């Protein structure tokens, strides 16, 4: 099956969903030069005043990712000790796709 990915900015609490653009959202298909890549470049570009310029950006897997990715944001709770970053983003972050 393989993991499905979101491109997440934990500081802005936003994410891009490649599937929203009709593009591949599995690891081999990510950032292959389609619309997702164009949007990401616009978001992280420092010469175009990108909203995400200088922020951490994470490829968050839905099944293979680790909880509490890199210590940037706590994803787990007592009730959901295995919640992954991808799930947290889908549940509480803004989709900017």
Describe the fold and architecture.
The chain is α+β, with helices and mostly antiparallel strands and 97 residues long. It has one domain. The chain contains 2 helices and 4 strands, in the order ββαβαβ. The chain has helices spanning 35-44, 85-92; strands spanning 5-9, 14-16, 58-61, 94-95. The protein has a 4-stranded mixed β-sheet with strand order 3-1-2-4, covered by helices on one side. The mean pLDDT is 86.
Compact overview of the structure:
With 97 residues, the chain is of the alpha+beta class. It is built from two helices and four strands; from the N terminus they run ββαβαβ.
* Unreliable sequence segments: none
**Percentage of residues in helical conformation:** 10-25%
Arrangement of strands in the largest sheet: 3-1-2-4
User: What radius of gyration results from the CA coordinates?
Assistant: 13 Å
The assigned structural class equals: alpha+beta
Element order, helices and strands? Answer: EEHEHE
Task: Compute the average pLDDT.
Answer: 86
> Could you give a short account of the major beta sheet?
4 strands, mixed
**Terminal-residue CA separation:** 24 Å
Number of beta strands: 4
Approximate strand percentage = 5-15%
Number of domains: 1
Number of helices: 2
What is the global morphology? Answer: globular
């Amino acid at each position: 099956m393989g993991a499905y990915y979101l491109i997440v900015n934990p500081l802005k609490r936003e994410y891009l969903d490649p599937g929203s653009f009709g593009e591949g959202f599995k690891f081999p298909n990510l950032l292959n030069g389609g619309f997702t890549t164009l949007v990401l470049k616009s978001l992280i570009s420092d010469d175009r005043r990108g909203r995400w310029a200088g922020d951490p950006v994470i490829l968050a897997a839905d099944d293979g990712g680790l909880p509490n990715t890199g210590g940037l944001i706590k994803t787990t709770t007592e009730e959901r000790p295995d919640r992954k970053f991808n799930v947290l983003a889908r549940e509480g972050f803004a989709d900017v796709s």
